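Quick one - inputs below.
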Amino acid sequence: MLSLRSVTKRYGALTALDGVSLDIAHGEFFGLLGPNGAGKSTLMSLAAGLRAPDAGALTLDSVVITPADPAARSALGLVPQSIALFQELSAEQNLHTFGRLYGLRGAVLRERIDEALTAVGLADRRHDPVKNYSGGMQRRLNLIAALLHRPKLLLCDEPTVGVDPQSRNAIFDFLEQRNREGLTIIYSTHYMEEATRLCSRIGIIDHGKIHALGTLDELLTRLPFDEEIVFPATPVTAPLAAELGAHGALTTLEGRHHFQAATGFKLSAFYARTEAHGLSPQLFTAARPSLEAVFLHLTGRNLRE
Amino acid sequence: MAIILTLVRKDIATFLRNRAAVVVTFLVPIVLIYIFGWVFGLNQKDTGPTDIRLAIVNASTNPAAQKLVDALKADPAFHVITTTDNPDKIKRPLTEEDLRPQIRDGWYRFAVVIPADVVSTDRIGLHLKILSDPRNDIEAQTVNGLLQKTIFSNVPELLGQSLQARAKQFLGDSRFNKFNHSIADTVATAFGGDPAKIQRTIESGSFGLDRITPPAKPADPSLRRLDNGAPAPATTPNPATPAAKPAPATAQDFFSRLVKIDSEQIVGKSVKSPAATRMVGGWAIMFLLFAVSGGAAAFFDEANTGVFQRILSAPVSRAQLLWSRFLYGVLLGLFQLMIIFVVGQMMYGIDVFGHLGNLIAVSVAAASACSAFGMLIAALAPNATAASGLSTLVVMVMSATGGAWFPMSFMPEFMQTIGKFTLVYWSMEGFLQVLWAERTFVELLPILGILTGITLVVMTVAIWRLKKKQIFA
Ligand SMILES: Nc1ncnc2c1ncn2[C@@H]1O[C@H](COP(=O)(O)OP(=O)(O)OP(=O)(O)O)[C@@H](O)[C@H]1O
Ligand SMILES: [Mg+2]
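Output:
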């Protein structure tokens, strides 16, 4: 459906996207996972036809997307990273304006507005100016404003920033429902949990390059270990941590050691050592490696730094 | 076009929701126009200041001096004070020595002293002393003007006596006598009458002026102060104005002519309130610029919040987005101008509805130029704060040099030249041509053309800069 061919975008000397190639299939829920400044929004804005690439091309169902061709954009919807709403106007006025920009009129438009407001629980606040909404309500409105015209492809750029868990779940449910109905979604985030929960396929992006691409399981198998052991980073465990360095990869995140055994280093050998140091087995959890670990492995960076 | 109209509609809805913007756009200029109109005496219902406290000391025994005092007493503009309280609460006439301390103490701010030598031999004109503590220049000029007018229109013989006294000193007694005698003879020969009686009349200095009705109050109450240097004089030099008509017969005399100069210039013209026209036009164009450059700041808000991104991710082109902003500015400006002019009609009797078609034409052209200016500000400024700073500065300078505040002729030559490059000048010119010179549509075409030219040039530069700016994504 959407396809990027060696797309490069520069801002002056800075290369925000560096030869990105990517194919998004119909009906996919694609996650674009990357830290701040990775190039997620840049990719979104190119896909939305807001900017032209410096090299390469983007096509939507084989129609080239460029700022010069507004008509090509009617099949897609963009949820900008910021709250892109008219703050002085009511939810209804906002939706009315955006709907009309896509050529919706009259009864159809009114129906869609009702439907959308109801779906995200804003129907009773429809006449209030947006500036009086809570952050979570604004986010929900920001989302549905991109869907009135029933696009084929929805570009969601970090749509849950600053939203409490409850609203966030409402947004997730809403998007999953739309995806089941056939909407193709590209969802950018730097939250591992979001990508894990929502996305059928994930691209890991950093410094303008896609470092890994695949389903969650595919990405996890890229890790050179199948067992990760997590334990607290305390003075008591320090001697063990010092030894483990020789038998695999040890990283420390948020007060915890994450140990990935090198091939050949057996779990039994690991526990033998813990006993030798007099450490209780309860301290250790064997966890499934996370996307975060994949990211760390691929980029050497913590996602949320 | 549907897209542009949708965007314009959105802009209007946003504007109407912003009460502060509505107040600044419509109410503030109207209030200011009212206040300034009042200050400059343009308000029709208001006949100018009343009951200005004025102390008078009359040390002259000349009966004409007493006439002057009476005339000032009769003038509603003044509340005349001629007596003061002694410490023992007994009233006595004011003396010149009382005036200074009492002015200092704020009992009154103006005083007139008519000295014993009100008519003297060593100069032409009257010898009057005016003491004042004017709170501002305009007030001082106003009071001076009112005094002069009262003197001119009520006691011409004082001035006549003054001329006679001067002539007498200059010519010497006998020659002066001979001079008056021969004039009296000539008058008697030509028109009949008793030469001796005529000579006595001449010597009294009245020249028969007392029989001429004092000049009528000028038709427009504003004139009585406008002719004394209020900052917004009634008239601009204008080739379309017919030369001042010869004064009517009753105004043949020199003094009433002096007073009537301004009113003669508008004789035969239907314009009731040219000064108001200028003032209303000036304020209107300045506030239009402010309103439109407020729009420039809104432009940045939309760009920063990502609203532009959302709009442009719809099937909307950049050009449509920009032109919608421009069109919105034009509509807002047009609406604002019309409201201000209609208020001008209600307050000052400017004939708006009589010139509605041409006024709308000029207003559309002026609003277009202003809207383009707003776009240029948005294009040149790096952010909203800079935009409002820059626009305030430029609007002030353009309004000052372009003649929105006071007529261009008040300014030095080079400033006038600069002024002609401003859209304010051409907009003002347009308003005055319609409302004051009452030009036809065809005669207005050059000005409409210039304003349209300004619009096109400014818009071209603005769009070129905006496209370079990456404000869109
Ligand atoms: N308009 C711009 N002008 C110059 N540089 C820009 C511009 N927009 C983005 N960049 C730079 O391009 C790089 C990628 O930015 P981008 O906004 O695409 O990152 P992102 O992944 O969306 O980050 P975030 O998670 O913070 O939103 C960053 O280094 C950023 O500073
Ligand atoms: Mg971003």
